[in-house]
Amino acid sequence: MPKPEIEFIDCDLKYEWRPVEGDKYGIMEKILSHDPETGDYTRLLKFPPGTETEETLVHDFWEEVWIVEGSLYDIAKEQTFLAGYYACRPPGMIHGPYRIPYGCVTFEQRYYK
């Protein structure tokens, strides 16, 4: 079944924050929609203040990220990205690691086209 049809809903009431599977930093997520056949999904991701990741990331899927609130610092690029910043990462694009001194919430879409 593809991602469900959803009319506007209050995500604070409808979805609960849950730990990201396999995460060791305390990062939480709200899965907003998911297609179990393709693995595509949309989520909110919340990084607690003081998070500093160690991994350089690379994926086999497309990833689009919008910073909703807070900021994150890309350690490798030595750049800070603020609320309102957007990234579109094709499969194979290298990113991270990150330092999130004050916390951050992102809106993220992942898909395998």
Automatic annotation (TrEMBL):
Transmembrane segments: none annotated. Pfam families: Cupin_7 (PF12973). It comes from Desulfomonile tiedjei (strain ATCC 49306 / DSM 6799 / DCB-1). This is ChrR-like cupin domain-containing protein. InterPro entries: ChrR-like_cupin_dom, RmlC-like_jellyroll, RmlC_Cupin_sf. Residues 14-107 form the ChrR-like cupin domain.
